[in-house]
Predict the structure.
Amino acid sequence: MRTEYKTLLIFYVASVFAVSCGVKDGPYLPKRILSKPAKNFQVSVRSEGVLLRWKAPLENTDGTPLLNLGGFRIFRAETAFEKICLSCPRDFSQIFDYHYMGTKNKIPEGARFFYLDTALEFKNLYTYKLQTYDENGDAGLSTGSVDVYWDEPPLKPDKVLAQKSGRLTTVSWDAPLTNEDGTPAEKIYGYNLYRSEKTGEDSLFPLNNEVLKETAVEDIPPEDEKVYYYSVRAVRKVKDTLVESASSREVAVSYMDTSPPGIPTGLAAIPVENGVLLKWIPKAEKDFSGFNIYRKTAKEKNFVKINTSLVKAASWVDVDVNVKHRYVYAVTSVDSSAAANESDFSEPVKVYYIFK
């Protein structure tokens, strides 16, 4: 009887303890909160190397804002072409630790990242993936892996020309005949056209959505009052990878307005009580911005601009004059272009200032 009583008592205590602790299905481990993987992970292959680009994630796996991003670990696996086994597991190793330098305790919204891998050997399959980690170094989630077949790039296109007609620019070039190592180029897969607004600035994204098959293409830039710089890269297809050549020479096309406006006519100078009143007939032009007033004395050789800001009306009073002095005036028109093109001087007019 005493043994049965002890057994019942132990069962009762264990049952009460389980109910008081809210345990229904036994103990469990809490779910870990991890940073989500990098977004928009993309890889492009150029003569310079393999360019990785991506954006920072904004959330953790539980949907909370990502406020403690520490950085990204870049992993790469490599296999010689003759040993490729696509169904076999990849042997990844870390090649770079990309520390996040953004503001702490803030979502890394809009942050973009780039890495160029140049430690490569031809005729290798390279596979890349990224892994986020937090400020403590704890690993987050990884991106999917991307395969790159790396081999000799073609030579860059030669004799690049750009011709502008109205708003249309036609860019043309010659196809390369060899690869960079001098071996005959296989049939070139196509070309990518790049456009930049700064000289020497290598664009990351081509203008064309699909690889160009011809050696000439037409483009209409989005804005006037700018100079655009075009370059071309030849593309070779190595298995499933598009390998770009180095960039061709850059060609500039100006969409700046360099035409001066019309010259004002009919300039007259009239002495009035508070100075010399100037009147003229403006040219009616859409991009008109204002006028400049120039003056010299009878003894001076060169005109000097005397207005501090553009004159909008077709008349102006020069109050900085002296009685019994002779002056010569001229007026110019200025347009509203970025270059602020200015016309030639109007027909000059002389005046002897004396007012009674």
